[in-house]
Amino acid sequence: MANGYRPEIVQRAFVDFIGSCLHPFWSLTTPKLRLIARYEMSDDLIALQFETNQAFRQQISKGTDDWQGGQYLDLRVFIDGVYHQRSYSIVGLANQPLWWQDDAVATKSAKSKRHTVTIAIKPQGLVSHYLTKQLPLFSIVDTSMPLGSFTLAKTNLDNKRLNPLLFVAGGSGITPMLGLITQALANGHQVALLHYNRTELAQFQHQWQQLSDIYPAFSYHFIHTDNPATYLAGERYLSAEGLLSLNLPLVDTKIFACGSQALLAGLYKAVNEISVPQNIPLRDNIIVENFGNALPDFDGDGNQLLDKALQTESHTVYLRSRQRQFDSDTTLLVAAENADVRLAYGCRQGICQLCRCNKVSGVVKNIQTGKISSDGYESIQTCISVAMTDVILDV
Questions:
Q1: Interatomic CA distance for residues 32 and 163, integer angstroms
Q2: Max intra-chain CA distance, the chain
Q3: How far is CA 102 from CA 68, 108, 156, 187, 222, in A?
Q4: Is the confidence at residue 195, as pLDDT, over 90?
Q5: Is the pLDDT of residue 4 over 80?
Q6: Inter-axis angle of helices 177-186 and 202-214, to 10 degrees?
Q7: What integer pLDDT is reported at residue 300 of this predicted model?
Q8: What is the 3-state secondary structure (H, E, C) of the chain?
Q9: pLDDT by residue (tens digit) across 22-61?
Q10: % of the chain with per-residue pLDDT over 90
């Protein structure tokens, strides 16, 4: 034909169907992963290493790196007859040894010549618990290709000099930083890391010490929130004084942040309190990992702001089991915390499901999807729901 079109004699979809019947890991078009190993990185963080299939390898971007540090995968997991999709950060870079493995394991992995990808998971919520505790080795899951713009490309570097970089992580928010920091140091950046966590992370500290020995431009601070000896500038949580104590040129420093909304709110509040020449807004230097979800916004005091279209009048939320009530004009979780009421939560982004509870009556709105609930009994997530009427929760 004149336009060069050549129809497929045998459709790839048909070939995929036949191949999947013979072996579920085989596909020309659908990227899949096969679980080959688990590693305990800390008491509450588990790494899962997967072998990639041919479709994944063919679709990966051409080049030496395969994916960028800071990217993530959307995994599609089949549990009790239902498919669930969750986002998980990729640990490290392609073709890079896993630094927590011993030499024997690393050598064996290199000799196998498998193309692998590793994610790190905190075993909380339905899907994360299933992947870390129940999914048998050599099981197969569907996956997206590497996604996300939480990468060094977001620094908008010029050709003359490299921006200093500050990485701020809370808890398992450290996982997307692992590849990013290694990549940034290899590229010649000055890098500082703040990691806030409630438990000791010996393996991570060993890795940071190794990088510090190799790269003089790298400094790290692990803040154990229950150990005052580790506090930055004497503050348990992130503060303006803590940021200033790092002696970074903050006007030129790009800040990568991943963690709870409380951590992000503290970061925005801290940068707002720092005076810089010409009143340059430091908050514009902040790059947040959001796994493709809408980013929260905060005012100068670190209070979360809702989009104007989602703002509501104040309504009363009643917790039936506790016989407590409070007023809410923001998400149910934030409103409860503002009233000194503790509710269960995990990611605070609508992903992990730990905040899910039953609504007895009342209407709520999902701030991510815009969906309005019924006024009857149903399951909701408090971290992404705002009250449109008075609400009763079975909590």
A1: 37
A2: 76
A3: 25, 10, 37, 26, 24
A4: yes
A5: no
A6: 10
A7: 58
A8: CCCCCCCCCCCHHHHHHHHHHHCCCCCCCCCEEEEEEEEEEECCEEEEEEEECHHHHHHCCCCCCCCCCCCEEEEEEEECCEEEEEEEEECCCCCCCCCCCCHHHHHHHHHHCCCEEEEEECCCCHHHHHHHHHCCCCCEEEECCCECCCCHHHHCCCCCCCCCEEEEEEHHHHCCHHHHHHHHHHCCCCEEEEEEECCCCHHHHHHHHHHHHHCCCEEEEEEECCCHHHCECCECCCCHHHHHCCCCCCCCCEEEEECCHHHHHHHHHHHHCCCCHHHCCHHHHEEECCCCCCCCEECCCCCEECCHHHCCCCEEEEECCCCEEEEECCEHHHHHHHCCCCCCCCCCCCCCCCCEEEEEECCEEECCCCCECCCCCEEEEHHHEEECCCEEECC
A9: 677 888 788 999 999 999 887 778 999 999 998 898 888 6
A10: 37
Task: Residue 353: count other Cβ atoms within 10 Å of its Cβ.
Answer: 18
Checking phi first, is residue 370 left (phi over 0); if not, alpha (psi -120 to 50) or beta? left
State if pTM tops 0.85. no
Query: How much is the pLDDT for 242?
Result: 94
How would residue 265 be classed by pLDDT, with cut points 50, 70 and 90?
confident
- Asked if residues 382 and 366 have their Cβ atoms less than 8 Å apart, the reply is no
Beta carbons within 8 Å of 299's beta carbon, 6+ residues apart: 268, 305
- Cβ 47 vs Cβ 120: under 8 Å: yes
Q: Which residues contact 312 (CB under 8 A, 6 or more apart)?
A: 329, 365, 386, 387, 388
**Radius of gyration (C-alpha) of the chain in whole angstroms:** 23
Question: Where does the pLDDT of residue 310 fall: very low under 50, low under 70, confident under 90, or very high at 90 and above?
Answer: very low
CA distance 393 to 395: 5
**72 forms bridges with which residues in the sheet?**
89, 147
Select from 172, 188, 189 the least CA-distant residue to 91.
172
Chain-centroid distance, C-alpha 11: 37
With a cut of 90, say whether residue 3 has pLDDT above it: no
Query: Residue 364's pLDDT is what?
Result: 92
Three-class DSSP labels, 217-270: CEEEEEEECCCHHHCECCECCCCHHHHHCCCCCCCCCEEEEECCHHHHHHHHHH
